[in-house]
Amino acid sequence: AQTVTQSQPEMSVQEAETVTLSCTYDTSESNYYLFWYKQPPSRQMILVIRQEAYKQQNATENRFSVNFQKAAKSFSLKISDSQLGDTAMYFCAFMKSYTGNQFYFGTGTSLTVIP
Amino acid sequence: DAGVIQSPRHEVTEMGQEVTLRCKPISGHNSLFWYRQTMMRGLELLIYFNNNVPIDDSGMPEDRFSAKMPNASFSTLKIQPSEPRDSAVYFCASSKGLAGGNQETQYFGPGTRLLVL
């Protein structure tokens, strides 16, 4: 079975600073996909960033970037220049490549950006 | 694109009543997912469909829950009879299809907040 672990239930960061959210996963697969989703107080689940395991280059989307360490099975999210609108729950998710498209979600990290 | 559409956005009902949640996936998406989110259990996959066919319903909690996808643009999740422990936010998500070429990315609807009294 696939498991996704987010070991930081809550985090806070000062506005304009940088914060890193951690995620580890357990799998025997060699090819898979990893995602970070953001859930603001509105409850809408919003895709932040996506990484394909066979790509060594870390994905980047504007102020959001990942540090993907395949051997360590680690997939952390870095948010640069934090903004008040970044306040949300952040979920890490894993998907196997070849056996359907079921996602496995972590328990989430609640991030608060402090003005 | 309108995104994934769910209705109703909020539902309050009494124990024992039937509840039907509705979802319209993004046009052209072939996979549809129903999730439930609670504080205690986090985000759980209940069932997913591919090309209107249920692929995995192992997450459906019990026989009181049923889901259908009669066509590519509509799905329902029904709870009958409802119980207070069913209170949660129910999300529908869709994706283009199987893995590869960003087709696997799931896009979520706004959710239905269900309260069973």
Describe this structure in words.
- The complex is a heterodimer of chains A (115) and B (117).
- Chain A has 115 residues and is an all-beta fold.
- Helix content of chain A is 0%, strand content 53%.
- In chain A, strands 2, 5, 6, 10, 11 and 12 form a 6-stranded mixed β-sheet that branches. In chain A, strands 3-9-8-7 form a 4-stranded antiparallel β-sheet, with no helix packed on it. A two-stranded antiparallel ribbon of chain A has the order 1-4.
- In chain B, 0% of the residues lie in helices and 53% in strands.
- With 117 residues, chain B is mainly beta.
- In chain B, the strands form 2 sheets. In chain B, strands 2, 4, 5, 6, 9, 10 and 11 form a 7-stranded mixed β-sheet that branches. Chain B has a 4-stranded antiparallel β-sheet with strand order 1-3-8-7, with no helix packed on it.
- The model of chain B has no long low-confidence stretch (mean pLDDT 92).
- Classes of the chains: A mainly beta (115), B mainly beta (117).
- At the A-B interface, β5, β6 and β10 of A face β5, β9 and β10 of B.
